[in-house]
């Protein structure tokens, strides 16, 4: 059995990382057009860096929760029985990795990495003060940007993701509002491929009617219950 799991901000909500579109969410407090577009970064890189530096500090003090651990157990169990879990996350946190999921595809990038605007090299970025820059252009002011995917940019690893979606026997969306493309279109694609679709979320998402099976509740209880 090949299972394609797509996760969103809701799976990390109980770890203390904010979601985007819930009441009081990140985009209710901050304007995405001023912080999460290439134009915003070109206009005011310091403001964009400050936003991501604060979220990086929050991430470093957070921990994975029972939902991340349940997904890791599912991956291990599928592998043991000759199946496969393709874990695709829209999240830029590293909580799936910390819960020991073996391979995670971060389609919207990673908060703990930076990318050089000129040479495109991607480097670890945990400590805002101690980034080791690999080339002179990376060292210049404004030379590094967060390795995240902003509005209008192409999400990462799309070929690998599309291939895994084609080969999957089951599609599961967890903790995502289903409002940002291309991820929001994966359920339609999965249905087009004739496979079963399942949603695990706090409440019905924008795409809820497209799922064959739905489970509603906080991820830390709903996901382990669905996995077991
Ligand atoms: C719980 C819970 C609990 C809560 N337990 N559940 C019109 C204008 C402009 C652009 C477009 C447009 N129409 C379409 C577009 C394209 C655009 C888009 O989709 N915009 C929509 C808003 C309309 N998409 C893009 O631009 C993407 N790129 C693209 O399309 O490229 C193609 C292309 C490029 C160039 C040329 C030509 C074509 C890129 C999208 C990048 C998204 N980036 C962000 C920021 C990343 C970095 C960061 O984190 O700062 O990614 S935005 C933000 O939204 C973040 C998330 O990954 C993404 C999805 O959010 P998610 O995860 O679904 O979170 P929420 O908050 O929305 O939902 C949380 C859910 O959890 C809710 O349902 C809750 O109920 C639930 N929940 N507590 C369980 N305890």
From TrEMBL:
Entry's EC annotation: 2.3.1.286
GO cellular component: cytoplasm
UniProt binding sites for Zn(2+): 116, 119, 135, 138
Domain Deacetylase sirtuin-type: 1-228
Organism superkingdom: Bacteria
Cofactor(s) this protein cannot do without: Zn(2+)
This protein's name: NAD-dependent protein deacylase
Provenance organism: Microvirga aerilata
């Amino acid at each position: 059995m090949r299972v394609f799991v797509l996760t969103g901000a809701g799976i990390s909500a109980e770890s203390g990382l904010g979601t985007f579109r819930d009441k009081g969410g990140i985009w209710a407090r901050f304007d995405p057009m001023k912080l999460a577009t290439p134009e915003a970064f070109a206009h005011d890189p310091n403001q964009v860096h400050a936003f991501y530096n604060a979220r990086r500090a929050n991430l470093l003090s957070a921990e994975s929760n029972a939902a991340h651990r349940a997904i890791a157990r599912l991956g291990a169990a599928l592998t043991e029985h000759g199946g496969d879990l393709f874990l695709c996350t829209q999240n830029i946190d590293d909580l799936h990795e910390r819960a020991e999921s073996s391979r995670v595809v971060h389609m919207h990038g990673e908060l703990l990495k930076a990318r050089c605007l000129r040479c495109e090299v991607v480097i670890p970025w945990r400590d805002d003060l101690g980034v080791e820059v690999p080339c002179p252009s990376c060292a210049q002011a404004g030379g590094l940007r967060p390795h995240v995917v902003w509005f209008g940019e192409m999400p990462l690893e799309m070929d690998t993701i599309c291939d895994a979606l084609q080969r999957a026997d089951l599609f599961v969306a967890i903790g995502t509002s289903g409002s940002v493309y291309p991820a929001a279109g994966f359920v339609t694609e999965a249905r087009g491929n004739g496979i079963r679709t399942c949603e695990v979320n706090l409440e019905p998402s924008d795409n809820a009617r497209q799922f064959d099976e739905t489970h509603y509740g906080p991820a830390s209880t709903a996901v382990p219950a669905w996995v077991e």
